[in-house]
Give the backbone structure.
Amino acid sequence: MKLSKRIGATALVVVVSLTGVCMSIAAQSDSQPPSIQLKEYRIERAISEEAKGCIECHAEQTRGIVADWAAGRHAHANVTCLDCHGVGPADTDVSKGHLQFDKETKISPVVSPKDCSRCHPGEAAQHAKSKHANTLEIIWKIDPWLNHGMNNEIERSTGCSHCHGTIVKFEGGRFDKKAWPNVGVGRINPDGSKGSCSSCHTRHKFSLAEARKPEACGQCHLGPDHPQIEIYKESKHGAIYDAEGRDWNWNAPAGMWTPGLDYRTPTCAVCHISGAGDVSTSHDVTERLAWETQAPLTVRPADFEPFPAVDHNPKRERMKMEKVCYACHSKAWTRGHFFRFDRAVDNYNDVYYTPAKEIIDELYEKKLLSKEKPLDEKLEIDMYELWHHEGRRARFGAAMMAPDYAWWHGFYELKKKFMEIEQQAEELIKSGKPAKVFEVKGTGGDTTKPDFAP
């Protein structure tokens, strides 16, 4: 169909005017302030009168939302506010505040993966079984800060919960402010579904291009414990992205984003989510992984006790990742890289983590360290950081070809940390006196496990 026919195929239904941010300076004298022009959003498709009312009202009240929606694919596909925010008879999260403005239209501010699944069933099903969707459950199973109340509510809500998610509580038509607003990737929604699609595809544009760029992942995957965005930027892949990425085609349709044609080097999405060759797109980020490099001791994903991957074969998934690499690299190059990565995993497990844990376990056995609370003694913090900080950086750096993170931020720091652990252990054993137990500041967080945790 010709472009002119595609444009003419839709009829004007409603015109919404917003105050634009563009300033008209031309044709103004120096003494005259610039005039504000009106920018017109023309909705050129048949939508319901109720949906038109939503758009017209929000064009006045929250114009940025309408601008994002109008620029996105949802608007182009006749997907309106009500398609995502409208509630059904069984929904309990009806906004009481919205009814004060519109008594007829019942909506929920929470758009969950279950809502998105009406149009994106495959993506929602894949996400539901992923570590992303279940990350709140995972940290409640393994995280000492939560399980022992070692941090408080405000530290959790502004830190941990921002990425991992909260359990959204909705009572009397209003949210519990301790759990909302939140777009954590493992958020538990009032309808029981897990996750928030807007963690990566931010509302209300829900841009495919945005989710394909590494900055989308870098919102959470950064810092001393999981610096994937910094590691990516150090790698050759990241250097090429920084130099050329602005010119790539980020808006190719799903399933048609092609290496060598639309982009020159992979981003996080290319390796972990997007399709390449005969490797299908998947929103289960555990796919294509042969190791759980975020765990204290590196294990296979199926052996990760807090959340074992179902039907996961590491050789099969490694082959998927290798096929992604083959789009740009030879088999010899690709297999050589993964050979070194596997050796780096063994090096961390055997040389650093296992012997360090044996030292700590001996101190517990001799009652020179207290098991009453974790992370209130210096040696406990050092052991925690050995795997949670330095150990992760070494493994992630090796996996993503970032030599500074693999060595200077990783294995070099592991050597120093091991020396510190060994020296403190020797001093405790020599003195026979238990380690100092500190009164950790900022404790008092609720230790009640949510229903999904054991």
User: Anything to note?
Assistant: Confidence is low (pLDDT under 50) at residues 1-29.
